[in-house]
Design a protein that fits this description.
Belongs to the glutaminase family. The protein is α/β, with parallel strands linked by helices and about 450 residues long. Helix content is about 40%, strand content about 20%. It is elongated, with a radius of gyration of 27 Å. It starts with a helix and ends with a strand.
C-alpha cells in the first residue's frame, strides 16, 4: 500500500509541473544544458524515514546549498567568535553575487551570499589549511550529512572555474580587506568545488533532516555537528538563505531554507523534518520557480510554517496519587506523583512548577482545588513518559526541587532513562532515584512505609 504522504508529494509535483516560467542557469555551460522537465521532492523525518516522488534519483550540483553546511564546518573548526569576526549574519537584500561588504567591519553581510561563503570556506580546517585539506574535510562532512559518499562533478567544476572572474574579484577584495588570509585563487577553486558536489533530493532531505535533528543524521545515527552550531546555521538560513527573497519566503513558507542555482532547495523544520525539492528553472533571484511553489504548497497543506501557532504548548503535566501508610505515619496519607510527558522545554517545566506550587501551598479560597497536597510529606516526579528534557527545563525542575527541600519534603524521582542530570549541590541531598512506581512507593515515607493504593489526580 502506498503511503498517503508519498501520494501527496506526487500531487504537489503534478500541480506545479505546468508552471513554465523561469530559466535555467545559462551563465554556467553545464547547468545551461540541464533538462528543465526534471522535478523531484523528498521529505525525511527526524526518525530516519524518507518519502520521495518524481525524479528523485537525478543528481545535480549542490551549488549554494553547500554554503549552509560549510558555514557550520567553519564554526566548528575555528569557533563562533572567529567566524563572526569575518562574516556577519544580517540579510543583505542584494543579489547573491553582489560585490559588497559591511561598513566599518569590512565583513560580508552573511555566509549565504558568495562573499560570505568564500570567507567561510577560507576558515575550514583553520586559516593555515591547504586546499586539499579543506576539500577532504568538506567532502567527508557532506557525505556524513547525506549518509553516503558524495563526489565533485568535475564537469560542473571546470565550467564554473572558467567563468569565475566575479568570484575571483570578491576573493581579492576580501583579501585586501583582511577577511581572508590565504591565496584567493585557491579559496575560489575550493569554493567552486564545494558547490560542484553532486546530490539528489533524497540526499538533500536527509542533510536537511540532520539539521532538524540537532545535528544527528537520522538515518545513520551519527552526530555530524553540535546542536549549538545547528542553531546558528538554521538562524542564518531563516533570515538569509533565500537571498533577497528571504522575507517573502519566511512569510509564505516559514521554514529555514537554502537554495542553489542548479534548482535545488532544502528546508529544515527543527525537530520535525527535512525537505528537499528540485527543478532547474530559476526566477530572477536565483531560486527554483517550481521548487518555491512546491515548498509553499507543502507548507500550507501540511502545516509546516514555523510561526503557525495553532497548538499552544500545554497538558504536559499529569498528576496521580499514591496513598501510603505505616512507618512514621499514624494514618494514611496521599502523596502526589507529577508526571511529565513528551519533549519538555521551558513551557512544560513552567507548567510543572506552577502545578507543584499550587497543589503544595496552603489552600487559597479564591482558587478552588489549590492546596490539595499541602500536608504531603513527599513529592514524586515521574519521567517515565518523558522523551527529553531541555537544559532550561532541567534548571527549572531542579530549582523546584530545591524549594521542596526548603519545605522539608522528601523527593523521589522515577527516572528510568536518566533524563534529569542533577546539579552538584543536589547530588548530596537525599533524593531517591528509582525506575518505577512500585520502587518509588517504598521510599516515599521512609522505613516501614508502604503503598495502600494509587489514584488519579483531580
Amino acid at each position: 500500500m502506498k503511503s498517503p504522504i508519498t501520494e501527496h508529494l506526487e500531487r504537489v509535483l503534478e500541480l506545479t509541473r505546468p508552471v513554465e516560467s523561469g530559466h535555467v542557469a545559462d551563465y554556467i555551460d553545464v547547468l545551461a544544458q540541464a533538462d528543465d522537465t526534471k522535478m523531484a521532492v523528498a521529505l525525511a523525518t527526524v526518525d530516519g524515514f524518507v518519502y520521495s516522488a518524481g525524479d528523485d534519483k537525478v543528481e545535480f550540483s549542490m551549488q549554494s546549498i553547500s554554503k549552509a553546511f560549510v558555514y557550520a564546518m567553519a564554526i566548528e573548526d575555528v569557533g563562533m567568535a572567529c567566524v563572526l569576526e569575518k562574516v556577519g549574519v544580517e540579510p543583505s537584500g542584494d543579489a547573491f553575487n553582489q560585490l559588497s561588504l559591511q561598513r566599518n567591519t569590512n565583513r560580508p553581510m552573511n555566509p549565504m551570499i558568495n562573499a560570505g561563503a568564500l570567507a567561510s570556506h577560507s576558515l575550514v580546517c583553520g586559516t593555515e589549511a591547504t586546499e586539499q585539506q579543506r576539500e577532504e574535510r568538506i567532502i567527508a562532512t557532506l557525505s556524513d550529512l547525506a549518509g553516503r559518499r558524495l563526489s565533485v562533478d568535475e564537469a560542473v567544476f571546470h565550467a564554473e572555474l572558467k567563468d569565475a572572474d566575479r568570484n575571483m574579484g570578491l576573493a581579492y577584495m576580501l583579501k585586501a580587506a583582511g577577511i581572508i588570509t590565504g591565496d584567493p585563487r585557491a579559496i575560489v577553486r575550493g569554493y567552486i568545488r564545494q558547490c560542484s558536489v553532486n546530490v539528489n533530493v533524497h540526499d538533500l532531505a536527509i542533510m536537511a533532516a540532520t539539521l532538524s535533528n540537532a545535528g544527528i543524521n537520522p538515518v545513520t545515527g551519527k552526530r555530524v555537528m553540535p546542536q549549538e552550531t545547528v542553531r546558528q546555521v538554521l538562524s542564518v538560513m531563516t533570515t538569509c538563505g533565500m537571498y533577497d527573497a528571504a522575507g517573502d519566503w519566511v512569510s509564505r513558507v516559514g521554514i529555514p531554507a537554502k537554495s542553489g542555482v542548479a534548482g535545488g532547495i532544502i528546508g529544515a523544520l527543527p525537530g520535525q523534518m527535512g525537505l528537499a525539492v528540485f527543478s532547474p528553472k530559476l526566477d530572477g533571484r536565483g531560486n527554483s520557480v517550481r521548487g518555491v511553489l512546491m515548498c509553499e504548497k507543502l507548507s500550507s497543506d501540511m502545516g509546516l510554517h514555523m510561526m503557525d501557532i495553532r497548538h499552544v504548548a500545554r497538558a504536559t503535566v499529569h498528576t496521580r496519587t499514591v496513598t501510603i501508610a505505616g512507618g512514621a505515619h499514624a494514618c494514611e496519607q496521599k502523596v502526589p506523583i507529577f508526571g511529565l510527558r513528551g519533549a519538555v522545554r521551558f513551557a512544560g517545566a513552567e507548567r510543572l512548577t506552577r502545578t507543584v506550587l499550587r497543589e503544595l501551598s496552603p489552600a487559597d479560597k479564591d482558587d478552588p482545588g489549590s492546596g490539595r497536597y499541602a500536608g504531603a510529606c513527599a513529592v514524586v516526579f515521574s519521567f517515565t513518559e518523558t522523551y527529553s528534557l531541555h537544559s532550561v527545563a532541567q534548571r527549572v525542575i531542579q530549582e523546584t526541587i530545591r524549594h521542596l527541600f526548603a519545605l522539608s519534603r522528601n523527593v523521589v524521582l522515577i527516572d528510568p532513562n536518566h533524563l534529569l542530570t542533577l546539579e552538584e549541590d543536589l547530588r548530596d541531598r537525599p533524593i531517591t532515584v528509582v525506575n518505577d512506581d512500585e520502587e518509588a512507593s517504598l521510599h516515599i515515607g521512609g522505613t516501614g512505609c508502604h503503598p495502600v493504593s494509587y489514584g488519579e489526580g483531580l
